[in-house]
Amino acid sequence: MLTYDEREPFPGTVGRELADSVQAYPEVVKPSAGTPNVLLVVLDDVGYAQIGCFGSDVETPTFDRLAANGLRYRSFHTTAMCSPTRACLLTGRNQHTTGMGGISDNATGFPGFDGRIDKATGFLSEVLRDEGFATMAIGKWHLAPREESDLAASRKRWPLGRGFERYYGFLGAETNQYAPDLVHDNHFVEPPKSEADGYHLTEDLADRAIEFLNDLRNVTTDKPFFMYLAPGACHAPHQAPREFIDRYAGRFDKGWDSWRAETHQRQLDLGILPPGTQLTDRPEWIQEWASLPEVERRVYARMMEVYAGFLTHTDFHVGRVIDHLDTLGDLDNTIVVVLSDNGASPEGGRHGAFNSVAWYNGVPLTLEAVLPKVDLLGSQQSHGHYPYGWAHAGNTPFQRWKRECHEGGVADPLIVHWPAGTEARGEVRSQYLHAVDIMPTLLDALGVAMPSTIDGVSQVPIEGMSLLESFTDPATDRQRVTQYYELLGCRALYHDGWKAVAYHPMRGQLYVPGLDPDAPFADDRWELYRVADDFSESNDLADVEPARTREMIERWWAEAGRHGALPLHSSRPVLVERPAHYEPRSRYVYRPGSAVASPAAVDVRHRPSVTIADVEIAANDEGVLLAHGGRFGGYSLYVKDGCLHYVHNVLGQQRHRVSSPTLPLGPHRLGYTYTPTQNYAGTVDLIVDGDMVASGDIPQTTIYAYHLFGEYLCIGFDDGTPVDDTYVSPFHFTGLIRTIVVDVSGEKHRDVQVELEAFFATQ
């Protein structure tokens, strides 16, 4: 059989007849026999000390088993935030080189921060697809800007546009674990069962991973695969089945100070920390556990129980995938890499949260908001997060946390399991490496060279380096010598065993009293650590070695300029609408279909509006006509018990309803008008065939967002969680909807200060 590379000219002969012709077939690209598979497991907001094999007493038997039969890297580093780290992992380039200087949702108009990874920075999935691998992504994506998250958008930055052949998961930073906004390949889908039937996203993702593997192995037993498995855990909302949470009852009653000290000792005993590593001090602005009132200790301990249950539940379902690989006979020759994308998260603030969406709307997270609902934490009724005291403990032995460039933000657990590729079992590696090094290391292990072009596009050079040698040689001196860091104005530079780091306060994240988020970057104090000997950044040498400190700062500026990390910005963004493929309009006409992603949906907040649905109602018809948001904030227009109802849900704490008299059957134009009476309040008039049939006050409306990353606008149903507690989602309308017209020609009220605070809170 004559074959040829399809990129080359046809080598056969085309004659007038078959007898005069020579056939030739394009070659099928097949990796060589025995090529390993790759499973990349990316956890979310899991701190350095929160996995068992890194010192935690949280039960993670799957991750511990992988570590016991493989390697742990004590000096693995990320970017301190999700989108940038994931961009580094999948491209092998630094975050700003890819344009992902921050999270994709809050892109700014500079090349290093535009949130758009272009084809010149090819993905690992694109390289391996072209080498004949099956490529699959499951779970969190968060690598496309918000204005490309709707069904009219280009999919070129969705998973199937970046080399993955199959996808099932969610596009944004977070989603409700019981009622997620799911995407299958390139379209939205509803979960396979409801929260009432026991649905949980992590279980669903594991089911889908097993399904994808079975689909592959039902056809071919030797085609290698690359699976990117990114559960939503343990990002907020912290949600897990009650039986996983309750197994931790009382486990954290000693509090974060004792837990941190005990974890530090376990880390030393396990050898995950270098001998003599000090435990950094707890800052005075994090509460001393012993000084807390009993009621606070009870609530905060329960929040940690929820988090621990969430992590153990995740470990269990990742374990199902690992066990299935073993059943298929693939586990030994699969390179399994498990890591977290950044340090533990402080986004619960001082007191933690029952509904963390409140924070995005300028509502302080208070203990009083949690107390009446402690028993519901972790359930479908909650959207919770733990206090920052637990985040600090979760990053033991380091300072600080997610979003910042101290080790608590950028040092993360890394496990590598590949029995066929290394004889190491349970060993700890000390080489310094960064997320950019994962892709070149995997390519090296697979025997695949990085191509100079992908899909005809010349490639930006890989900035990571292969650390494959460390798989077999624990003493190799091959490691990263220099790495810069920048996130939200915080900066750091690692170079040859030294680290310089500067913290810059950010509005909305101001944990340290007395600091000014508007202070010039030049006023930030740089610290200096000899991390080769002072692993935890305990001894600041900046005043002792001023010349070295200046040298490190200058090197940071050079690295930042070379990689596109400028201009520095933190609390000075300009709130402008970014270019999008759609334009805001004064009149929206909707018809039944899939949900409309929030950035592209009509915005009725704080402005006069008229909504009219052209419908036909028969006996017993009911359901949602139009809804935006969910259990933790939003509005809904629906028919139930023969009447028309409007509800505005404020953060799940208040629901203001207006209801009509009984509706006659037949064709109707049903809707409402909203008239603002003050900044965040108004009146609603229900309309039936042009007549006002009911009216009511809405004394409080949602200030900034119903939900930041999901709970989209729905026509004819209410996806995710229900806006009102009088029905159960999706509550599809059983009558006929022809159109729903929403007029928002009235001027919108804007509170720029509130919008700025919310912007910073979402970073």
From TrEMBL:
Keywords: Calcium, Hydrolase, Metal-binding. Residues 36-448 form the Sulfatase N-terminal domain. It comes from freshwater metagenome. Belongs to the sulfatase family. This is Unannotated protein. The keyword Hydrolase applies. One of its GO terms (molecular function) is metal ion binding. The keyword Metal-binding applies.
